[in-house]
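[SOLVED] Need 3D model of a two-part complex

Original post:
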Amino acid sequence: MALLQISEPGQTDAPHERRIAVGIDLGTTNSLVATVRSGEAKTLADEAGRTILPSVVRYTPEQIVVGYSALENAASDSENTIISAKRFMGRSVEDVVKTYPELPYNFVGEPKELARIATLAGVKSPIEVSADILSALKNRAEQALGDEIQGAVITVPAYFDDAQRQCTKDAARLAGLKVLRLLNEPTAAAIAYGLDSKQEGQIAVYDLGGGTFDISILKLEKGVFEVLSTGGDSALGGDDFDQAIIDWIKASGKLPGTLSSRMRRVIKETAKSVKEQLSDAETVNFTLALDDNSELDFSLSKTEFESLVEPLIKRTLIACRRALKDAGLKAQDIKDVVLVGGSTRVPAVRARVADYFSKQPLSSIDPDQVVAIGASQQADILVGNKPDSDMVLLDVIPLSLGLETMGGLCEKIIQRNTTIPVAKAQEFTTFKDGQTAMAVHVVQGERELVKDCRSLAKFELRGIPPMAAGAAHVRVTFQVDADGLLSVTAMEKSTGIQSSIQVKPSYGLEESEILQMLQASVENAKEDVNARKLAEQIVEAKRMLESLGNALKQDKHLLSEQAYEDLVADLNTLARLCEGDDEQAIKEQIEHIDNKSQDFAAARMDDSIRKALQGQQVDEI
Amino acid sequence: MNFFEIFDFEPAFDLDVNTLSARYKNLQRAFHPDQYASANESQKLLALRKATEINDAYATLKSATSRAEYLLKLAGLDISHETTTVKDPSFLMQQMEYRERLEDISALSDPYDAIVAFEEELEAEQAELEALIGRELKSAHYEQAANAVRKLKFVNKLQTELERLEDEASEI
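Solution:
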């Protein structure tokens, strides 16, 4: 028998017990789910063998339909069929209506609040729509894998701001998914190509999807990923290529400005198919039946098509140039270019990208699936199936975080492209005698004026001890975690009093709303809430018994004899409580042990810093 | 642990940035919150704090200016939020000339050569100041070192401005 069982946090003692985790590409147009089975990452298909799930949800009074069948009704029931909800994540009504004036949806709410859509099944926020898409993917995965999903890595565009990331995480929570990590889409693609283990150097990920364009410059070194810069255009994609053909059809066919909805749909479908055919064919001939039953013949050559989309491709290359500049690099410094997104199938796109970076881009993995595949590989590692992996993803914050100061100016507190996690503290003072509360407005963006930046949240600090004006110094700490999400804490310095913070996200759901929605969904499922809570606490308790137990065996020397005995006794109590069914007692005991072991845990961390540095001096030589 | 201790360095201005990067990455490999994705909440929080501290330490030690400021702070001289500035008249005169030169450059139709020449001059000045800071810190002349750091910050500001001009010039 082993004298000591040493297991890292999050890894089980039983090496063969695999945990099931998935990678999810929650896309604007399409979504996919993938998992690693027998060492191979694969996307999971529905009963009809389709791996793609259109990111479309239709709400009727009777049911919620997701995917292809919802898409079929997009034209006939456009008001209740939500397409590309991802564009509305973390966005205000005012914003959405201004950017997309032609949408058929009935947006409700105040102009400066999160955009929500009135449907036959009630008012839906984009978070709930995304949650329905995630639920569909979760069900698909659980059916295919025959087991419960333990965690998911969900991808987001690298430039997503805090509000958009928070919305994505909230959507996962509503769908009952445990998020292991929000992963940047380009990083996921690079992982899929195995660039993490084999190479060193800078790579570019060129992602031209249905409705968005992303360019990211990553740096790889000894398995460490670093996002050097990101850029792109959130309103440029394959749909714009289709639109270019639509405009050409309208112009060359001399069609009237306003068309029937049938004609619009027919032209749109034709344009898409012509675009796809032109990937192989030199010329495509096609006929359109007009509303008066007359027919019009068209012929579009590859050369003509390429000149139609040339301005669009050029826009992507300008964004590439800017991203390279931000990273302090030239096009020839890039070692590999990864292609992502269905629109990179267009030969003209491939050619221009190859030309710009002076090398053939990587395209062996299906560009629609590559992000989900990379995400599933990362999920497999994070859930603890690959204990010997030493990959680390270092990300940067895509947009600067700032605070509103006098006169509507923005003072930056965390610069964009700073490696995360990161924390910065800022001090505030009161300007009135006896003032006990103050408001802090957090914005994100690069511009000088608050009105040109995105509003993230308003924080109200309360419970400041009453003092003379200027005497109270409130230290507010802004913490951005590895997912790029912001949290805020505040403390009055002279008294050490923790001020409470009320967060009002500018374009998201408040905590109370999420809890309400979760409650409602549990009620709908008629689950036994108490049984579930007890089960969750027991899992948490077992995790603590395992990890703290091992830590105590390993690092007894960091504790006094008495403190060691106390913790062991506390753990025994916890183990005994797990035999019973008192959920509250288990919870309290966990919290009790958690508090008591804080110093021990901190000491272990410092100790392992020393250990992490030992032996590396040998590496360096 | 102070920032130097985190990376197992003696507190000193002269520091091999490559070794720093290598150690930084080893530490992130051990403490990045991803390594704790399945751990309990308090372990996650602890890892988050550690990784944050490591990032902060790395960013501070990587740049010569902030490294010098940090060493001064360890010596009890915090100049990071100060409002006092350089009082050396000849240095200030030169800064004013530099400012005028920036304006002249921004008025040029093809500023590229002028920008490169100016950049080289500033780089030389930066190197000189960094060498001076190193010497002063070594001999524990903190006030003198602080003065040199203040000057270095002026130079850094000019460099940023110049980069901005270069950006603007290449966008036309």
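Edit: The longest strand of chain A covers residues 224-233.
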